[in-house]
Write a structure and sequence with these properties.
Layout: H1 17-47, H2 51-62, H3 65-78, H4 81-104, H5 110-133, H6 135-138, H7 144-172, H8 176-195, H9 210-222, H10 225-255, H11 260-285, H12 290-310, H13 314-341, H14 348-376, H15 379-396, E1 432-439, H16 445-461, E2 466-471, E3 478-485, H17 488-497, H18 500-510, E4 520-525
Antiparallel strand pairs: 1-3, 1-4, 2-3
Helix pairs in contact: 1-2, 1-5, 1-7, 1-8, 2-5, 2-10, 2-14, 3-5, 3-9, 3-14, 4-5, 4-8, 5-14, 7-11, 7-13, 10-11, 10-12, 10-13, 10-14, 10-15, 11-13, 12-13, 12-15, 14-15, 16-18
Length: 533
């Protein structure tokens, strides 16, 4: 872990006023959300006997991610993130109010609960990328790891409080009031966001259009090995680990023969393990890198869920699930840090949206698998199968390491001079073809082509829809790099997006050229055809 990405204390981000108030507000809101999760999980188990329908509650929460996360990430990158979050939280408060009303009046049924949970999942998917992307806006990079750790720890503190409070309310007052409190909790976040005086990133260019912004996010993911590695490692864990959340109501009801208090205690045990892990992570990171933490946590989770499946004793189940909670938060924090450090600010929401799409997708597909296995075999069989798959995936996905992501420097280099065309050029005119000619030193061709492949990925991450390197047939040693962007405005955006690490790569390429030569750049743009009279 680089010193730049490592803070001195897990609590130091709380010294930053904006982060502190947002953290406290989300602590209250997440408490309401976990009360909702606990209440909805228990309510669905009382409304139906089908394990598939019970598991579908988790799918309803996660499924919207497939369709909404990337568009919402694009909106977050092109709109004001503060206003976007306020709007999303107002919408979720309204849905929570409706669920509370229907439950209190006794009008709710299993399918109605699944439908409204789907709407809550849509709201969550709308704001998830934005919540993650504002962290680097309110804390410096040196505090990023601790800020992510505090957020995940706060989520689990709220899970403990939410699960215990919800279990007590359900046992004595009924499930409806749980949903009412969740609706009220959103008001705290809205208030905190109102106090945040956000300073938007500096740019002289207009925001991207919605569809183009989505395509840019996908293109960045396609050409970012760092982000792709994070996706592979995350899916390898969450697809199998989702068995815990999907089957938790049945673990409490069937394996342990308990009621709502047992369910809430299991929730709390998971969260206690998660909080303990969050406090220990700064020390662990001094000895282990991200890849080692993810592999070790995967094995620990598999051990914990296997013990829960085999030994049906309350105390042992709580201890085993405590280990699972510690493993879950270790992987979550490590994966989020890897995703954050793989992305520059201009595409952060979209990149995190892709990351969260795979995360939520795993939580949507996994429960269907484990619910089906439970239906046709047994709950312990499903849990043991998931444990075995988790261990295999932990070692298989090690071929995609994520430990080097924190070494990437995405700070804009601003070393490119703005091109000054002689002919009149409209901002939306295009496509634009850029050619860069290089005179390569004899004996440096292999290293030059390897470096150009890396540069090509950077061009495409920053907006190029085509990239290639060509040798002049009549002039050995002369190579022409060619890339195409959709418009002149997109090329100007490339000038703003090029990072210091890409600038260092370009400087290295210059050392491979013939002495006394430099890259020669030319710009070509599709002309505007005027109709003849």
């Amino acid at each position: 872990m680089s010193q730049q990405a490592m803070s001195t204390s897990p609590w130091s981000p709380l010294k930053i006023k904006t982060f502190k108030w947002l953290w406290l507000a989300t602590l209250v809101s997440n408490t309401g959300s976990w009360m909702h999760e606990t209440g909805a999980g228990w309510l669905i188990s009382t409304l139906t006997e089908s394990p598939v329908v019970v598991a579908l509650l988790q799918t309803a929460t996660s499924l919207p991610a497939f369709f909404i996360l990337l568009p919402s990430g694009a909106l977050s990158d092109i709109l004001d993130r503060r206003s976007y979050l306020i709007t999303g939280n107002i919408g979720m408060a309204c849905v929570a109010t409706i669920i509370g009303f229907l439950t209190l009046t006794g009008l709710i049924d299993a399918w109605m609960l699944l439908g409204l949970t789907l709407f809550m999942g849509m709201g969550t998917a709308m704001i998830m990328p934005t919540w993650q992307s504002i962290i680097p806006e309110v804390v410096p990079r040196s505090e990023l790891q601790s800020a992510i750790g505090l957020n995940t720890m706060g989520m689990n503190i709220s899970r403990v409080i939410g699960a215990l409070v919800a279990g007590t309310i359900i046992a004595f007052l009924g499930t409806g009031l749980v949903f009412v409190f969740n609706a009220i909790s959103f008001l705290f976040v809205i208030f905190a966001l109102k106090q945040w005086k956000r300073v938007p990133p500096e740019t002289k260019l207009p925001p991207e259009k919605f569809r183009a912004a989505i395509m840019t996010g996908l293109r960045y993911t396609k050409h970012s090995p760092a982000l792709q590695a994070t996706l592979f490692r995350s899916v390898g864990f969450y697809l199998f680990a989702s068995v815990m959340w999907a089957m938790l109501p049945l673990i409490a009801r069937d394996l342990l023969e308990g009621g709502p208090r047992t369910y809430s205690f299991l929730f709390a045990a998971i969260s206690i393990g998660a909080i303990s892990s969050a406090l220990l992570l700064p020390k662990l990171r001094r000895k282990m890198n991200n890849d080692q933490l993810i592999t070790g946590a995967s094995i620990l989770f598999a051990f914990g869920i296997s013990i829960t499946a085999l030994v049906h004793v309350h105390a042992i189940a709580m201890l085993a699930l405590c280990l699972c909670g510690a493993a879950w938060i270790t992987v979550m924090t490590s994966a989020q840090l890897a995703a954050q450090t793989a992305l520059p600010n201009w595409v952060k929401s979209r990149g995190l949206a892709v990351f969260q799409t795979f995360f939520m997708g795993s939580l949507a597909v996994g429960p269907v698998i484990w619910g089906t296995v439970t239906k046709y075999s047994s709950l312990p069989t499903a849990m043991l199968a998931a444990s075995a798959g988790l261990v295999v995936a932990a070692f298989f996905t090690r071929r995609w390491p994520v430990s080097g992501n924190d070494q990437l420097d995405h700070t804009p280099s601003k070393h490119w001079r703005q091109p000054t065309p002689v002919i009149p050029v409209l901002p939306e005119q295009g496509p634009v073809m850029v050619q860069v000619q290089y005179q390569v030193e004899s004996g440096q061709l292999g290293e030059f082509l390897g470096a150009m492949e890396k540069l090509g990925r950077a061009r495409q991450r920053d907006g190029a829809v085509f990239w290639g390197i060509f040798e002049e047939a009549a002039n050995p040693g002369t190579y022409n790099e060619t890339y195409v962007v959709p418009s002149w405005l997109d090329h100007l955006r490339q000038h703003e997006r090029i990072s210091k690490q890409d600038a260092a790569l370009q400087q290295h390429i210059k050392t491979l050229l013939q002495e006394g030569t430099a890259p020669v750049v030319s710009h070509h743009i599709k002309p505007i055809h005027k109709p003849r009279n």
